[in-house]
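INTERNAL AUDIT FORM
Audit reference: QA-55
Scope: verify that the stored structure record matches its stored sequence.
Auditor: D.O.
Record contents follow.
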Amino acid sequence: KRPRMRPPLARSSPPPSSSPEALYWRVRAAAREGKVSTKEIRENWECARGLCGEFQDSSAVVDVAAGHGLLSWMLLALGWKLAFAVDTKKPPSAAKLRDAFCRRFPELRARHSYVVSAAADLRVEGDALVVALHGCGGITDDVLRIARDANAAVACVPCCHSFGTTRLPDHLRPSSSSSSSGEGLAAAIDAQREVFLREAGYDVRRVPDFISPDVTPMNTAILGRPMVGGGSSSSESGETTKSDQHIDILQVIQRDRTYFPARRLPPMSAIWQGEK
């Protein structure tokens, strides 16, 4: 009878608390308690580490199409000041993950909010990075637009490329003859996304293997920074208080065009769930 094999990560022991890897093991333990798969943990951790290396000067992150919100929690654990996880629905797993992270990182609870909203109804202000890890189809284009409107930094790892779902402006939409499928299709659409950001005055890079290919084949990132400005101040005097900083990063737009700042509600609250 063959012996039962345990997965390598379950067999490994955590490094000493002084090790640089100790933070990963704390984050991994919280994610596993939150019922997140090993693949998703690696995927989000590699993305989070890459974002920290590329955008060290951003103080807040807005994670669109966040699902359970693991990426935003990881970025907080890595030292970001504020994080907003945004999705059209808040899955039950988001609460489990929140509780697991807050048990191991209690200092993060007041710095995280889960916002229930469509990407098209978001308005970002202040010094923020707008991200989407595997934002399906046109969600990536929504994220690029949100960042452009706010003159904010942006990072996307697109997936589910399709000529039918892309929301690029008409003059940038690639023709179906550009490519039929596979890598060519993804490259054609992402190239036009780069053009979209460059037309808005962004310095743009496309980074292959932003996430290890053995973790996911959809691993190319589009990274953009506004070449002029970047973010806005919420105070007329040029100084931003802690409370102002919390209020002005993210707003949700209702149908009547009234703006509801996310941080006026308690952390992890669902702000607006749309029309019933």
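Auditor finding: record pair retrieved intact. Residues 68 and 94 are 4 Å apart (CA to CA).
Action required: none
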